[in-house]
Amino acid sequence: MEYKRLFGTNGIRGIVNKDLTPEFCFRLGLAVGEYFGENALLLIGYDGRYGSSMIFHSLCAGIISTGCEVHVGGYTTTPMLQYSIKSLGYDGGVMITASHNPPEFNGIKVMASDGIELDRESEIKIEKLFHELNIDSPKHKLLHAKVSQEKRMLPNYISAIEQALWAGELIKSKSPRVVVDPGNGVSVLTTPQALIKIGCKVTTVNSVIDPSFPGRLPEPVPENLTAMRTLLETGKFDIGVAHDGDGDRCIAGDERDIYWGDVTLILLATYILEQRGGGKIVTPISTPFFIEEAISNFNGKVVWTRVGSITVSRTLVAEKAVCGGEENGGFMYPDLHPVRDGTMTSALLLQMISEYEKSLSDLIEERVPKYVVYKTKFKCPNEKKDTVMERIMKLTEGENRITIDGVKVFGNNWAFLIRPSGTEPIIRCFIEAKDDAILEKALEKAKGIIEKALAS
Predict the structure, then answer these.
(1) Dist. CA 250–CA 240, nearest whole Å
(2) What is the 3-state secondary structure (H, E, C) of 152-182?
(3) pTM given for the model
(4) CA 406, CA 419: separation in Å to the nearest integer?
(5) CATH T-level topology, domain 372-455
(6) pLDDT tens readout for residues 55-87
(7) Which residue, 13, 21, 224, 254, shows the most beta carbons closer than 10 Å to its own?
(8) How far apart are CA 158 and CA 343, in angstroms?
(9) Is the distance from CB of 321 to CB of 268 less than 8 angstroms?
(10) Where does CATH 3.30.310.50 sit in the chain?
(11) Is the Cβ–Cβ distance between 443 and 436 less than 8 Å?
């Protein structure tokens, strides 16, 4: 029997008190607790979004009623929770966050004991438990587990980031000046502290946790980062870093520009490959194809995956790759842990510019091929996504394409990827090309295909 999917590309997302009601969250808690089993020790944290407290208490009630023990991480970034699950010996955990989504959204991610989100097969098991709710609840005498506070997370995590660097003393000697923009999200708890610990001089903007995200929208795309850009353009800072609501992404820039995540992914990949003498890089099909050109100079090989950080993380472990990441600013450095981590990425960027004694922009000019990238999206109700994508597949028959996830079409010095979002009611389109003129033609072609499919 098939059930309605609850989990999208990155966990469960929905509007608070519409999709994510107390009843829904309690029922999900029952399913999660039953999945992990009696006496499992779970770590739960949340970001500063609306409804996080309501979701937490509803979820906890369901989990505890199955005989599990819950430890509370409180306000935390997703990567700090993930690292803590692995390093502090938990059986699993839950992060309450909607990452980069607008303020009215919240969400739930379930982690395995290694700190990585559950694989798809495990998510399906939880969905089956949720829908059937055929749960053999333990007798009252087994409900002895208490809810405890986990106070080791932050110092343990900050120390691990410092130890994961190989040129920490060099950073301290350079004392780089950094702008940090947490975007009113929970990374204000981690990135400033981590960068100060390694010797940086830090100035913050949008640094008060606020569920309305008054400083800017939670997605750290360059056009949203006006406050950070204004400070960088004064020339008084070496670099700026910005995060999304739960701190697993990092977008960086300097006085010359603020760069998309695919640029810093490619740059950091060349940096780590150079240190290791080569290796594998894992990235989804949404990453621009010119990453292959960039890393070939450093004995690197790309392992392509479907879109979704879970898939990238699991493949990163399986392939024993040196790093991985996504074009949205989610970089993965497995020496700390194989998940997206905005704070670790920030530290690596500071180490890189300190070692090379060059600006971020100069390094990008040297190492990243000159392509232009454009991202756009089209509204599409969730229930129509499958039909629309079937039409898009038919409309691109005969093209040079890859259909590992959605459809990526390749032309002469251009490519575009069309795929449905796993978290929002939209169809995403990523276009990459050698120059602006070629990009315009590729955009026109992609837009025509999508609009025709939506109108059919």
Answers:
(1) 10
(2) CHHHHHHHHHHHHCCCHHHHHHHCCEEEEEC
(3) 0.90
(4) 4
(5) TATA-Binding Protein (3.30.310)
(6) 999 999 999 988 899 999 999 999 999 999 999
(7) 13
(8) 9
(9) no
(10) 372-455
(11) no
Identify whether 313 is a catalytic site residue. Answer: no
Q: Could you give the dihedral angle defined by the CA atoms of residues 135, 20, 121 and 118, in that order, rounded to the nearest 10 degrees?
A: -100
**Catalytic pick among 52, 84, 99, 187:** 99
- Delimit the CATH 3.40.120.10 region(s) of the chain: 12-151, 156-367
> Which of 43-47, 77-81, 145-149 has the weakest average pLDDT?
145-149
Buried b (16+ CB within 10 A) or exposed e, 37-60: eeebbbbbbbbbbbbbebbbebbb
For residue range 82-139, list pLDDT tens digits in order: 999 999 999 999 999 998 888 999 999 999 999 999 999 999 999 999 998 766 665 5
289: which residues sit within 8 A by CB, 6+ positions away? 410, 415, 432
Fold assignment, 156-367: Alpha-D-Glucose-1,6-Bisphosphate; Chain A, domain 3 (3.40.120)
Mean pLDDT (whole number) for 226-252: 98
Q: Residue 137's pLDDT is what?
A: 63
d(CA 219, CA 262): 15
Domain 12-151 falls under CATH 3.30.230.80: no
Whole-angstrom distance, CA of residue 146 vs CA of residue 63: 11
Give φ, ψ of 286 to 5 degrees.
Answer: -75, -15
Query: Where does residue 335 rank: exposed (0-12), middle (13-18), buried (19+ CB within 10 A)?
Result: middle
